[in-house]
């Protein structure tokens, strides 16, 4: 998603760029067929219990492909990423730590998503700032009878829950 135009883009860092909004819109009115969580396992040396957070949410649609929403490594904004970027991050972390740090988990059976698979994503709703720009800290995925809020957590990457 990054390109040379981002450096000169006047869009503030807390807002989606026009290109990203167009990508989000392209997934509206598409049939959701699968959901995956990419969990980042952060094992600190001081504790045996790994900290886990949702690094990337992958929504797979019948005709539109995959939409990957990521908290990024800094959890400052929801970003749209490509599969290649996710793979590069996972590979880099595995080389650095000598073990797999990012794990894929199917989220289809999760209570949050259970009734969404096989449904059409009718709308992606975003909040606006006072200047009328769309904020990139949360998205409301509207499946008609079911709505799911995807938002940033200060310490846990992304959070997804019913709305």
Give the gist of this structure.
The chain is mainly beta and 163 residues long.
The helix/strand class is: mainly beta
**Structural shape:** globular
Strand content: 35-45%
Distance, first to last CA: 28 Å
Helix content: 10-25%
Which stretches are low in confidence, meaning pLDDT under 50 for 5 or more residues running?
Answer: 1-5
Annotate the secondary structure layout:
Elements: H1 18-26, E1 30-42, E2 51-61, E3 65-70, E4 79-81, H2 83-97, E5 102-106, E6 120-121, E7 123-125, E8 138-142, E9 147-153, E10 157-162
Antiparallel strand pairs: 1-2, 1-5, 1-6, 2-3, 3-4, 7-8, 8-9, 9-10
Descriptive report:
By secondary structure, the chain is mostly beta strands. The protein has one domain (6-162). Helix content is 15%, strand content 37%. It contains two helices and ten strands. A hairpin with a 3-residue loop joins β9 and β10. The radius of gyration is 16 Å and the shape is globular.
Protein traits:
four-stranded antiparallel beta sheet, 37% strand, 2 helices, single chain, six-stranded antiparallel beta sheet, globular, 163 residues, disordered N terminus, mainly beta
